[in-house]
Amino acid sequence: MAFRWRSLMRFRSTTRLLLLFTFCLTVIHSLSNDVDSCDKLHLGQYLCKEPRIDDATQEPETCKDRVAWVECLPAPNISCRLSNGTQFKFSGEEVGFNKTIPCRNVSGYSYKVAVALSLFLGWIGADRFYLGYPALGLLKFCTVGFCGIGSLVDFMLISMQIVGPSDGSDYIVDYYGARLTRLSITNETYRRMQPSP
Questions:
Q1: How many other CB atoms sit within 10 Å of the CB of residue 89?
Q2: How far apart are CA 80 and CA 124, in angstroms?
Q3: What are phi and psi of 123, to 5 degrees?
Q4: How far apart are the two ends of the chain, measured CA to CA in Å?
Q5: In angstroms, rounded to a whole number, what is the distance separating the alpha carbons of residues 136 and 127?
Q6: Helix (H) or strand (E) holding 175
Q7: pLDDT of the chain along its 197 residues, tens only?
């Protein structure tokens, strides 16, 4: 009976030591990993700079493949891990990380010029020639803008930015101007809207 009592006491003391050791490891691990990566900061913990806008294209200067990078500054007294793994406490003046913003692919076709040509010279096809559709421009020229009906339809399509440049690029529109974003519903959109079981 005494042997059982001793082995039970050893088991209890060993279990307590293991629990204490596990608790200490958990505390040490949580203290060392409580700092997240800088790019995982929440909104309000950082401020991103406005992008520099190119005067010719009216898009961010760093725009490439429909994505531009902007510098983000973490708020003062925020600590986070940089991309190289070092922990840093920010004063509010240092760049902590870069964030991507969407931008558009433009190639020199101005929205204002296209609308003006469509309004004033659409009956002779100048708008379609400008946008790179010479066959439709010649057809509109020969038919006097499809007797005016085609000119009206083209003016509406160009002003709503449904018809764009023939190379697939976007119009040059002022950065804070009247840009349109097309909304579309696809099978992917439909799947995302379904409630999960």
A1: 12
A2: 62
A3: -70, -15
A4: 57
A5: 10
A6: none
A7: 555 656 555 656 666 666 666 655 554 544 445 567 887 888 888 899 999 999 988 899 999 888 999 999 888 888 888 888 888 888 888 888 889 999 888 988 999 999 999 999 999 999 999 999 999 999 999 999 999 999 999 999 999 999 999 998 899 988 877 777 766 676 665 555 555 55
